[in-house]
User: Fold this.
Amino acid sequence: MKEISLKPTFAENSAAIEKITNWKEEIRFWIVEVNAFLNVTAMFKLNCKPREKDALEETEMKMTVFQRQILPGIESSVKSLELAVAGRYTGGLFREVETKIERGRKTYREIKAGLLPFFPKFVHVQIW
Assistant:
């Protein structure tokens, strides 16, 4: 008869810890990048056309929502998962956090895509 163990093996645990470390680094990068983008957009809004300003304000609002609402939720989920992995019990929490990270990546890519038309203008006015 095969022996059943409820505790994950060392290899499974270390892989989970490595993923969590990568996620934490990615979240830190998002935080730094969002702050930089918000600073750049604030400077550019002073010297742009009204039509561009509206589009930039909309993108800035989305980025602010991402910074203040979505990122803290993802960050707290990763921290709670880190504690669960340390206690050797993750249940469905690992997959849940992985899904949140994927959604966060998708949302952040869409927000950054909204800034793409402005990059040449950022360079032109020597902000970037």
Remarks:
- Residues 33-124 form one domain.
- The chain has a mean pLDDT of 83.
- The two ends are 65 Å apart (CA to CA).
- DSSP finds four helices and no strands in the chain.
